[in-house]
Design goal:
The complex is a heterodimer. Chain A is 44% helix and 17% strand. Chain A has 14 helices and 14 strands. In chain A, α7 packs parallel to α10 and α12 runs antiparallel to α13. Chain A is globular and about 65 Å long. Chain B is an alpha/beta fold. The two termini of chain B are 21 Å apart. The chains are: A alpha+beta, B alpha/beta.
């Protein structure tokens, strides 16, 4: 029996453990253990006003608060029968662009790049290639600036509300973002070229990809939920197709599709199901990044994230250039008893919210299903298949590759409830 | 803006509230040419905050293994910075941010870190007795640092 133990898996968010047991050359057991205690957000939303929900749920994550705000406002607007369109909808896409840029850039440059370049962390990269890390930091800042300008502050922004915003920016306030975003667009394109030179493990799997799909846009806030095997449903039908299960070794519920099937959400799923919705410049950059129209190698998620950074820059520039401040920052809300579903594309994948309200708009029931908890099973599947195919690797390299396989998903275990100790036993 | 006092920490996490408490205590006593910045969150932001600054003093709660309440002064140029692990894995900690700034040649001319060994980072407001009792001494030391004493 061989045993590999890593006390703390770096460069993922949160705390947990990974356990892999191999007996006579066969992987017997894989467990992604999330032992961070549950955070009870769904419970303490009960009996709070609908108006508090975007600000409370934003606190679930410091990296993707916009995703929580967007899924919650869409769910509540559906419950109240309200549609937000025009420039308010554009501003929502704009602030989401900011979050994708900052979150993806953090992962590409600071968390995932060291795996491919053979460094322990991005600080070691900075010693040998300071310009690369400078570019990453500046790119991330461009995303932060969007969130700050539209959302009021960089982390846990305070300007999003059900029905729109508390205050909308003027054209003059958005204008300074443009010049930096044009630099960011070029830097994102360069990022795609750079990832195109990296080497990836040969590892393709037959995944069930799940993502939003919109009639004309690369998805942020809206669309039907589709999958690679043909699922095509309204968001309201989510509970009929996806189930949360408790496993005894994890404090985060795992999600399955159609009772048993693991599924893959996040950049690869969005890209594969929405390649035709990407602007030409992004498809061109994808080719430079070494991607085809479909990518089934999760190690190449760094390339897909890079393409999505470029997309977010291009989209943000488009929105700002055509922006006309709406007359009103928010549409009127008439509360009523009802249930609403919201699903938006967080950087890590689909984030589903469901709220039931009473007539006065108090929350009676809340369900929040973050992308990382949805990806837990597919991460376990990847580890099972990767370890099975690479038992010839030495302990140290196999351990590193297992950690990298987890990082492919940019898991946010704080969101799912935190991460990671690796324990690999070989009998 | 060439001299900065940057306090770090979250007032709602026990002794992590050291930074905010020092800011509150020292705000009106700082020399006029010193700007106070209160920061909470990702320390990679420090590289932006101190861009162009000549002299920077950082204040944060520390976990070094010393007895709680111990006052520490660390000059990263002089003795290097211990590799305190970041409490988050999605954000850089103070020591990682300083190391990164060093590699990128983005450090101010002078940088000193003042800290007090924490007892607890539990949820809720309020410093532990050990850290609270070191607060005024820490404020004095920071003021002396700026006075060049």
């Amino acid at each position: 029996m061989r045993t590999i133990k890593v006390d703390y898996l770096a460069r993922v968010e949160g705390e947990g453990a990974l356990y892999v047991r191999v007996k006579k050359g066969v992987v017997q057991e894989v467990k992604l253990k999330i032992f961070e205690p549950p955070r009870f957000f769904e419970a303490f939303l009960r009996d709070r006003s609908y108006s508090e929900v975007p600000d409370i749920t934003a606190r679930i994550c410091g990296i993707c608060p916009i995703a929580y705000q967007m899924s919650s406002v869409h769910a509540l607007e559906q419950a109240f029968g309200v549609t937000v369109d025009g420039q308010l909808r554009e501003l929502r896409r704009l602030i989401y662009c900011g979050e994708w840029i900052e979150s993806h850039t953090l992962h590409v440059y600071m968390l995932h790049a060291p795996d491919f370049l053979g460094y322990q962390d991005s600080i070691e990269i900075a010693r040998d290639d300071p310009e690369l890390i400078r570019r990453g930091l500046r790119l991330k800042k461009a995303g932060n600036e969007i969130v700050r300008t539209v959302g009021g502050r960089e982390i846990h922004p305070i300007n999003v509300r059900v029905g729109g915003f508390y205050r909308v920016p003027s054209r003059r306030e958005l204008a300074p973002l443009l010049e930096e975003l044009k630099w960011a667009r070029d830097a994102a394109y360069e990022t795609c070229r750079w990832v195109g030179k990296l080497e990836f493990p040969d590892f393709e799997q037959d995944y069930e990809f799940v993502a939003l799909r919109h009639p004309s846009e690369y998805p942020f806030n809206e669309g039907r939920l589709v999958s690679s095997s043909g699922l095509d449903i309204d968001i309201c039908e989510y509970p009929q197709h996806f189930t949360e299960l408790h496993v005894d070794y994890s404090n985060a519920l795992q999600s399955v599709m159609h009772s048993t099937r693991s599924y893959f959400t996040g950049p690869l799923a969005r890209y594969n199901l929405n390649y035709d919705r990407l602007p030409a410049i992004c498809r061109e950059a994808a080719a430079e990044a070494g991607l085809e129209a479909v990518c089934k190698n999760p190690f190449k998620s760094i390339a897909v994230r890079s393409v999505e950074i470029l997309f977010a820059c291009v989209e943000a520039i488009r929105i700002i250039e055509s922006y006309e401040p709406p007359v009103r920052a928010c549409v009127d809300i008439q509360t009523c008893a009802g249930t609403g579903h919201g699903c938006t594309e967080a950087p890590r994948g689909i984030l589903y919210h469901r709220y039931t309200t009473d007539a006065s708009g108090l929350i009676r029931d809340a369900v929040i299903i973050p992308p990382t908890s949805q990806n837990q099973r597919v991460i376990e599947d990847d580890l099972r298949h990767f370890v099975s195919a690479h038992l010839d690797l030495g302990q140290e390299e196999l351990t590193w590759k297992c950690e990298q396989a987890v990082r492919n998903y940019d898991p946010c275990i704080s969101c799912a409830t935190h991460f990671l100790k690796l324990q690999l036993e070989r009998e | 803006m060439t001299r900065l006092l940057i306090t770090l920490g979250n007032a709602y996490r026990g002794d992590d509230g050291l930074g905010p408490a020092v800011a509150e205590s020292i705000r009106h006593r700082l020399p006029k040419d010193v700007t106070l910045i209160e920061h909470n969150g990702d320390c990679s932001k420090l590289l932006q905050l101190w861009a162009g600054a000549r002299e920077v003093v950082l204040v944060d709660a520390l976990v070094s293994g010393s007895p709680p309440g111990t006052l520490l002064r660390i000059d990263p140029f002089d003795c290097g910075l211990p590799r305190f692990r970041s409490s988050s894995t999605h954000a850089l900690g103070i020591s990682e941010a300083i190391r990164l700034a060093g590699e990128l040649r983005m450090l101010p001319d002078s940088l000193v870190v003042y800290g007090v060994e924490a007892a607890s980072f539990d949820l809720g407001k309020g410093l532990s007795p050990a850290v609270a009792s070191a607060l005024e001494l820490l404020a004095e030391r920071v003021l002396r640092e700026f006075r060049g004493v």
